[in-house]
Amino acid sequence: ESKIDINVENRSLTIYNLSIQDTANYTCKVYIENIQTFERNITHQLIVQDVPSAPSKPIIDEVAATEARARWNGSELSNNSPLTVYILTTRGEREVTVGSDSRELIITDLEPYTCYRIKITAKNIIGRSYFSPPSDDFYTKSTAPQAAPKNFKAFSPNSSEIWLEWDSPSSAGINGQLKGFIILYKTQGFMEESLRLDSPGETQMKLQGLKAYTMYTVSIQVYNEIDAGPTETLVARTAEGIPSAPRITHLTGRMSDSFHVHWEPPQETNGVVIKYELQWRHNSTLRTRIIQGHLANPMIAYVTNLKPYTEYKLRVAAFTGGGKGPFSEEHPALTDLRGPSEPIFKNLTVIAPDLLYISWNKPNLYYKNIDNYLLRWTEIDAKGKAQDKLLNGSVQEFKLRLPPNKMYKIKMAGISKAIFSNSHFVGKFTEYKEFVMGGKDDPNAEFVNTGDSSGIIAGVVTAIIVILVLVLIIVSYRSFQCRKCYQAAYYYLAVPSNSSSAPTTVITVAEPSGWYNEKEYPDIAVDNFISHVESLHADSDFGFAQEFDDVNRNTKTDFKSDSSAQPENKGKNRYINIAAFDHSRVVLKTELGRIRQSDYINANYIDGYKKPRAYIATQGPLPQSFGDFWRMIWEQNTSVIVMITNLMERGRRKCDQYWPSDGLELYGNMSVKILNTVPRAHYTIRIFSLRNMKVKKKHSVKGVGERLVYQYHYTEWPDHGVPDYTLPPLTFIQKSAEANREGGGPIVVHCSAGIGRTGTYILIDSMIAQIKDKGIINIPSFLLHIRKQRNFLVQTEDQYMFIHDVIVEYLLGGGELTEIQENNLNNYISKLDQEQELCNGTTTICESQLLKQYKLATSHIASDEDKSQSLKPYNLDKNRNLNLLPVNLKRVTLPARPGIEGSDYINATYLQGYYKSNEFIISQHPMEDTVEDFWRMVWDRSSPVIVVLSQIDEEDLKTFWPEKDNSLEVTNVFKLALRVEDQETQENIKDFILESTQYDYTFMTKLITTQGAIWPDSCQPLHCVFDLIQLAQKYQQFNDIGPVIVIDRDGGVSASKFCALWTLFNQLANDHVIDVYQLAKLYHLKRPGVIGEQDDYLFLYKAIESLSLHYLEEKESVSSSPRHHNSHYGSMRKNGTLPHNNTNSTLNKSETVI
């Protein structure tokens, strides 16, 4: 086929499909024939160029770990274009270029223990040749690994083990055949130990036989056939174990009914000692006391209510987070003597005008010995001082010489010398005996017979009866008169009915007022309620005092409580004067063969708003009533228990633990299994499976034999008092009330006695229901009504006042929970800045929802009294900014140093988080004079993580930690040393070890600083603000023993943002809701000024919105979203958030903030 095309018209020659063989000279001959013939030749040279031919197959030799030599023969044909370079291609398309004259090359930068195949191509101006045939496959030599295992983690399941997990490094970093792992571990002061794990596929291992509650440095490295690689290191602490036994050293201050016992802490604490159990026993009587709070070393405890001259056996045991340790050896403790009872006069005879004969018998009760007797006499109708005569304790008669012709009275007492001091105990005196000394001329001596004459006895008995009758008449008359003079409340001893209970408690009860016509109180409209409460608060809460006093006077209390008074039921009452009214008490179902009184429990039905028997108010269960309590829960079909007390408060037993700590327990016929425990900042939720063992499982339909019961336990409500702030208990009441399933039985509410805090809860929840229904509030009328169902509901004026304040908080918050659902977050935030018209009389004001929220959250102005500790003269210089000071209620208090004023002060505040009310400490950047105080705070609060948001400038904001190889000793209590420093992307992490100088105790803390990047301003996109938070959370989760400390320059806006976003992150992750308003308001109350400006408040919304949107955009990355760490409770209860009920709400929504 012709490759040439000649076009005469265009006078052109075209050659197609050129190849290298077409290179030649081309001549064009032209003939012109006209008058004469003309010929012309034109010649052009055509050179066709092509890529060169392929080089030969490379030969590989001299192979090492990271290099090899390649040799080859060059291209045979250059194809009319000179070669410029040879290009060698290795694994991963890496190319190496050499000159055209080269025929070998040492290829470097190869990866050890890697298979390679080399190809070569030649290049000229036209391009690259075809590849040469590839070399034979070859492996580079092995060398020591250069990568450490990844994702190295540790946790301690018990006090003697640490469980390690890791991922193997990539094969590229192993540099050979992976043979296994080497684990190195040590604790301070001991040699490093190593373990070799010859299983390359393993990714976890257990270290055993470790010391309890000890910090271990653990490293891991891979090894191959050549050597071991670099280490990945972490620090892990073993879990707390049980401590060894303390040692009782001595007793001091021994009295007849008390002494002080001293003991040393356990030599091996194996954790942090959180409390002691002190027992003292005499014969079969055993008493116990739990000692917790500030635990000194050595310890001292005051034991009282003892019997005189009695030997007790003492022993003490310590508790840590790992449990209760063994008791110490018993230590004998003898109480001192007490004075004897009165001696018994046998005879008083005037045997001479100036001589009195006295004889007596020993007292009926005395201890050890009677060392002396004391005679005391005085002249009747004379103003002279009584005279004493000390007699030897061995005598029982005496002749006393007295001036004649006078009338006297005389008494005597026994005296015993103290065993443990030089004191003497004077016993009880006899009654005075009167007599007359005769004159000189009186021939007859007076005889006073004190013997057991029947006539005298009859006379004495008659006299006693007469006196008792008179006393009863007087007391009855005074009692009648006292009833006419009513007082608002009296304090009675609420005596525990079982002798094993803790010391007595004061319970406030109203004075019975007899029959009356029930007083009516006016309804208060929602719109007027806030101003109504303000008027009651005026003049030091005078209006509240008057109204509560009036409610008490009009309380009807003379209902019968016969069932509570039955002998067989008295032991089921926690307090002897807190009984259950018969007409409203919960009657348990009786079983055949059971005694009649088995239907009794100290509990009463209480009405809710328009819902009879909406609640059951009861006492904190006693051990002997656990079975009855769970029977009641079952029989009443209760699904929610509200507990508003701690088991121990102020050292006294307030309630006994009526649920299993783990697993399953039987209480009578009731099987209770704990399924989950969900901690929150101010309360804890426990989920139980309750089963009636009398209902056969195979015959029961679903829900009949087994039920779920939720216990909402508020942990920060003091006895006889009220919480510090209104928002947390309001949220608790709303969530616990809404958890009650539709058609469920009464909510069971209990505190200790089941009256004060219990009544407060019921009244708040009922008033919220009344607001939703009618838009009115009537607290005193409802209180009078429910007091007819259980005595003394709402005990104190403070509780009564608190009810009003919580309802005000409810109205300000818009009448609903202030949480925002995650699925509504974007829509909600988009409307925050939209302005709304508000009418204020004749003025129309445009105000956005954001501004209203911000103003409400930051409206409180703290008084100087609230910040009095910060403003004391000796503390003023410890504050960087007087606009950012801790309030007294939430300031961090350091252990005071004797003789140094203000040594307990540091500018630092506790802030709540998601799990704990003191989850964070926010503080200013330490000043030169407060560095030691700062580290004292870290030590005293065992803070595991410190986040420094301030930028070190070494002028104003200086480094406040020691550099490596230097240590800082603080107040002769502990030493601080930098152990490890690590560099993350933008953060620097320093590991500090704090070691006691007196005891074998250390703990570690991580200090995180940002490197030149100002958080949160430098975080782009916005969701990146959570990167630093998640880094800190990672470290805190490994060592959650104390609050996280967050620092900025003044302990202000940046630090509070960090704490708030940390908490909001957990809210979003676990509950799919956020509550910016509640968090901001509480932070402002605890540390005024930390919320900053309105834009700072909006930033919290925007940041959490950005995070939520980020996770929505990365749905395919399941592990990136915190949703997949939801608690068990969150998944069971609609992701932890209960539906809001807006039915019949009469609130004006334009006036609410949420």
TrEMBL record:
<dbReference type="InterPro" id="IPR036116">
    <property type="entry name" value="FN3_sf"/>
</dbReference>
<keyword id="KW-0904">Protein phosphatase</keyword>
<dbReference type="InterPro" id="IPR016130">
    <property type="entry name" value="Tyr_Pase_AS"/>
</dbReference>
<dbReference type="InterPro" id="IPR003961">
    <property type="entry name" value="FN3_dom"/>
</dbReference>
<keyword id="KW-0732">Signal</keyword>
<dbReference type="InterPro" id="IPR003595">
    <property type="entry name" value="Tyr_Pase_cat"/>
</dbReference>
<keyword id="KW-0472">Membrane</keyword>
<protein>
    <recommendedName>
        <fullName>protein-tyrosine-phosphatase</fullName>
        <ecNumber>3.1.3.48</ecNumber>
    </recommendedName>
</protein>
<feature type="compositionally biased region" description="Polar residues">
    <location>
        <begin position="1138"/>
        <end position="1154"/>
    </location>
</feature>
<feature type="domain" description="Tyrosine-protein phosphatase">
    <location>
        <begin position="544"/>
        <end position="810"/>
    </location>
</feature>
<dbReference type="InterPro" id="IPR000387">
    <property type="entry name" value="Tyr_Pase_dom"/>
</dbReference>
<dbReference type="InterPro" id="IPR029021">
    <property type="entry name" value="Prot-tyrosine_phosphatase-like"/>
</dbReference>
<keyword id="KW-0378">Hydrolase</keyword>
<dbReference type="InterPro" id="IPR013783">
    <property type="entry name" value="Ig-like_fold"/>
</dbReference>
<feature type="transmembrane region" description="Helical">
    <location>
        <begin position="456"/>
        <end position="477"/>
    </location>
</feature>
<dbReference type="GO" id="GO:0004725">
    <property type="term" value="F:protein tyrosine phosphatase activity"/>
</dbReference>
<keyword id="KW-0677">Repeat</keyword>
<dbReference type="GO" id="GO:0016020">
    <property type="term" value="C:membrane"/>
</dbReference>
<keyword id="KW-0812">Transmembrane</keyword>
<feature type="domain" description="Fibronectin type-III">
    <location>
        <begin position="339"/>
        <end position="435"/>
    </location>
</feature>
<keyword id="KW-1133">Transmembrane helix</keyword>
<dbReference type="InterPro" id="IPR050713">
    <property type="entry name" value="RTP_Phos/Ushers"/>
</dbReference>
<dbReference type="Pfam" id="PF00102">
    <property type="entry name" value="Y_phosphatase"/>
</dbReference>
<feature type="domain" description="Fibronectin type-III">
    <location>
        <begin position="242"/>
        <end position="338"/>
    </location>
</feature>
<dbReference type="Pfam" id="PF00041">
    <property type="entry name" value="fn3"/>
</dbReference>
<feature type="domain" description="Fibronectin type-III">
    <location>
        <begin position="54"/>
        <end position="143"/>
    </location>
</feature>
<feature type="domain" description="Tyrosine-protein phosphatase">
    <location>
        <begin position="850"/>
        <end position="1107"/>
    </location>
</feature>
<keyword id="KW-0325">Glycoprotein</keyword>
<dbReference type="InterPro" id="IPR000242">
    <property type="entry name" value="PTP_cat"/>
</dbReference>
<feature type="region of interest" description="Disordered">
    <location>
        <begin position="1118"/>
        <end position="1154"/>
    </location>
</feature>
<feature type="domain" description="Fibronectin type-III">
    <location>
        <begin position="148"/>
        <end position="241"/>
    </location>
</feature>
<dbReference type="InterPro" id="IPR036179">
    <property type="entry name" value="Ig-like_dom_sf"/>
</dbReference>
<feature type="domain" description="Tyrosine specific protein phosphatases">
    <location>
        <begin position="730"/>
        <end position="801"/>
    </location>
</feature>
